[in-house]
Amino acid sequence: MATPSMEDYLEKIYELIKGKGYARVSDIAMELNLQPSSVTKMVQKLAEAGYIHYERYRGLVLTPAGESLGEEMQERHAMLAEFLRTIGVPEEAVQIDVEGIEHHVSPSTVRCLQDLTSFLRGNEAVRRALADHRERRRRAEADEQRQSDLP
Length: 151
Description:
mainly alpha, Arc Repressor Mutant, subunit A, Diphtheria Toxin Repressor, domain 2, 4% strand
């Protein structure tokens, strides 16, 4: 079973390989803002767990299990980001929140969020109603705050 940290690495390795055809320890370190020595240790753990093939001073290759998990993590990340944007989370908070959420929800919760995201994507009227509701709540909260600030 992959740890959340392993999942983050596999997601990044998958993204690098899909984007430029390969992933090296230095690429991963730069992308994740980590020291190459830390990345090397995790890459060795991923190899021991059967997620990648790794040879020192060479690139690495995802195994079928690693590719499957990397793709799953990238899809989960994208879906959570879309969901948060759809419900009105400010863009500057989306990636931070996705990183905080993505490893802490069960597969059944992910499926439910996928269903809801898909439903919202296909229903402009519902998205508009949600945005209108959010705006009314914000105005009501601001009015309440102004009232409580009065002497």
